[in-house]
Amino acid sequence: MPLLTTPALAPGTLAGRPQPDLDAGDLLLRPWRPDDRPAVLAAYADPAIRRWHCRAMTGDEARDWLDSWPGRWRQETGAGWAITDGTAVLGQISLRAVDLPEAQAEVSYWVLPDARGRRVATRALSALTAFAFDRVGLHRVWLRHSTANPASCRVAERAGLAAEGTNRGAARHLDGWHDMHVHARLRTDT
Ligand SMILES: CC(C)(COP(=O)(O)OP(=O)(O)OC[C@H]1O[C@@H](n2cnc3c(N)ncnc32)[C@H](O)[C@@H]1OP(=O)(O)O)[C@@H](O)C(=O)NCCC(=O)NCCS
Predict the structure, then answer these.
(1) Is 165 helix (H, G, I), strand (E, B) or coil?
(2) Residue 161: CB within 6 Å of ligand 1?
(3) Which percentage of the chain shows pLDDT scores above 70?
(4) Mutate to test the pocket of ligand 1, among 92, 111, 173 (most ligand atoms within 8 A of CB)
(5) What is the C-alpha separation between 94 and 40, in angstroms, rounded?
(6) Quick check: 190 pLDDT over 90?
(7) Other C-beta atoms within 10 Å of 66: how many?
């Protein structure tokens, strides 16, 4: 059955160029490097990151996770950045579920415990949405978080991703099904 719509963005929109660094004031978002493994391991040792991302990580898995990002960029399925202060890794932010024909992507983020409370996540999310709209041409950037995670809700709102509603019982966590709050920003939002 032929699609009656044309793809909003063509193949090669991401892969046709190298993954760039993103400037976020005194933060620098840069592609992951193999020597970032200790920071990733430290992240997945943190109870809050384990809780909300429902994942643990061994050294080998951290290496594989870091190695996976260039391929995801080439396949245009995802893009991950280390959030840094220019030197140290403070967190991660990434585009997931990249859908170029529909010009949208999901965002995921975490910040290491010592770097929290300084708007690191908010500033990184603002820089990433600006990149997604202005340089990639996405139409919609969205995320969802458990309704039991108010810090993530604040990050989304402060970065201009408006709350759209709640998906009931939509994600399984270690303690069972959680209601998930959906946020999104459109390129046309002011
Ligand atoms: C959520 C997370 C990314 C926030 O990172 P951060 O850099 O500390 O976030 P920011 O400093 O940009 O903003 C945090 C906001 O949440 C608020 N906040 C923090 N803890 C909170 C809590 N328990 N309840 C309500 N608000 C809270 C802060 O006051 C701040 O709001 P403000 O800007 O209005 O003052 C970080 O806490 C984290 O990595 N948590 C574990 C993993 C996670 O939750 N990932 C997201 C999954 S959807």
Answers:
(1) strand
(2) no
(3) 100
(4) 111
(5) 14
(6) no
(7) 20
